[in-house]
Each structure stands twice: as structure tokens, then as C-alpha cells.
Amino acid sequence: IVGAIALVVGLTVYQEQKTERTLDALRDLSSPRALVLRDGVPVRVAGREVVPDDVLVLNEGDRVAADALLVSAVHLNVDESLLTGESVPVLKQPGASSSVFSGTLVVGGHGLAVVAATGARTELGRIGTSVSSLETGRTPLETEVGRMVRALALIGLATCAVVGVLYGVTRHNWLDGALAGLTMAIS
């Protein structure tokens, strides 16, 4: 039993470390790299390092790192399906109300945009905040599995008790009957 416990603990620790490494890699992937103009020089930075008033250089294939106001664009098409569910890319033109949003994908053209919001203040961040505040109940499957586990546990305990009592009654040895019921419960 001690060996089995040590094996389970070892496997659990190994899996936890593996999971942490995977989550770190996913965090790196989920934070897109952004090309920004800083002091007039294009610099590629991690998406989490983008700050308001940075100028994003948007090119085909780029994931937009922050909500930004478009200042110039040439045939800039953006896939906003992540936010809107719309499957057709949107043609973006510079103007007073023309924005690009964090998490969207530039599928054509190029442009420049001034960062207006980052992190939780972006449209995608607001969606994430509202989703995380939702309370999730148990699914029907979880409820049914819980009910089944309780029923099987009660049946198993009842069977062990019956075995112990029958052993004690038939052999007139209540200590061995209790040990038989306990042994069955452990197994």
C-alpha cells in the first residue's frame, strides 16, 4: 500500500510539473508579439508589453495585441469572428470611430493604429471578465455520476456489513466476521 501511495504521489507531482510547463508555453502563445513604433523605430515586443499610446504596425497575419484607433490603412481586412462571430473579414478604414480590437486577426492589407486600451480594459478583456464572473453549476453528467457513486458506495458498505454479520452468525465468531467485512471493504 505504501508503495502504491508513493507511486501515485510521484505521478501526481510529475503531472503537475508537466502541466505547469504546458500552461507557461500556452501563456507565451496566447500573448501575441506586436510590432510597435517607439521613438519612430519599429520594435517587436510581447503583447503584454504594449501600453496605451503605442503605435501598432499592423500587417497581414498579425494578431492585434490591444484595442486601438486606426490612423492609417491600406486594404486592411480584419477577422473579428472572435468577438462578433461574423465569419467574413471586415474592411477597416481610418476615421473617428474606426477601431481594431485585441485578439482579432489581420487577414489582409496593412495599417497603423494608436493603442487605446490593453488587458482587461479591452473588449476581449471585458468579455473574459464577464465570463469569469459567471457561476457554473454542476452539469447533468456530474450530478448523475455523483448520485451513482453514492449509490454504489452504499451498496458496497451494505454488502460488507451483510458479509460480516453472516460470517458472525454462521460461524459464531463475531471478531472474524468483523475482520471479514472490513477486509472486503478495504478491497
Q: Any key phrases for this structure?
A:
single chain, seven-stranded antiparallel β-sheet, 5 helices, 187 residues, alpha+beta
What is the H-and-E element order? HEEEEHEEEHHH
Q: How many distinct helices?
A: 5
Poorly predicted regions are none
What would you call the shape? elongated
The averaged pLDDT comes out at 89
Name the structural class. alpha+beta
| Ends apart, CA distance between termini | 11 Å
Write the layout of secondary structure elements.
Blueprint lengths: L1 H29 L2 E6 L2 E6 L8 E5 L7 E13 L1 H4 L5 E3 L6 E2 L4 E13 L5 H10 L7 H32 L2 H13 L1
Antiparallel strand pairs: 1-2, 1-3, 3-7, 4-5, 4-6, 4-7
Helix pairs in contact: 4-5
Describe, in plain words, how this protein is organized in 3D.
The chain has about 190 residues and is an alpha+beta fold. The protein is built from five helices and seven strands; from the N terminus they run H-E-E-E-E-H-E-E-E-H-H-H. The radius of gyration is 30 Å and the shape is elongated. The mean pLDDT is about 90.
Outline of the structure:
This protein has 187 residues and is of the alpha+beta class. It contains five helices and seven strands.
